[in-house]
């Protein structure tokens, strides 16, 4: 089984619609794919309606969290999307995205960059607006050569000249919300140091005690040494380890299925979840 548990569609900052994404996932030979847009489940209905035979959809979301001033992402799988407390928190985070993007645009204007809200809104389309959309606008304007070049202290990296923090959930609160909604929580790319400061191992240990299910180990932002270290840490803490592409369509370089999750781990995630269940494509496995 080929299982990719972390992807983004146009419901957040990916470039494929949810329907395109599941078709590409099937074409890439995946058996199961998780749609984990930032702070929203908005893409799930379209992905489900377009789900090809033979592909199973794992519903999920990637939550924006902050611990001691450090931004971190938490993947939540197979939770009940209608559970009110968790739904309210996702809406709070998402509603903060527009004023935050507008704030970053204002800072860029102060820095002499002629970026406009109209331009960023056009790039974001129906998606939850975020930094990658602003980064794409900076590429369009010729300010930086690639989206990745915008994620530097000079521009949009955490603490960068044009960066503005957003509302982010305390990860211990996120764990409580995810579990109350019947979901399973996996700390996304916990050691992706290129994105900014990462939380210490001691914090991962505390999260494990608080109910974290696993950590994402095989991810493009982790080098082989980091993966080995994280695997050891997970073993020590009794955490599951996942692998996934963090696919964003053409906005990032990773491809669907570039990293995969072990079928046994996938089985354990689906066994623990009580809020929702993986959905096989019509006529599929
Ligand atoms: Zn992430
Ligand atoms: Zn992601």
Automatic annotation (TrEMBL):
Superkingdom as given in the UniProt entry: Bacteria
One family name in Pfam for this protein: PHP
Matching CDD domains: PHP_HisPPase_AMP
Coiled-coil intervals, chain numbering: none
Domain Polymerase/histidinol phosphatase N-terminal: 3-67
Name of the featured protein: PHP domain-containing protein
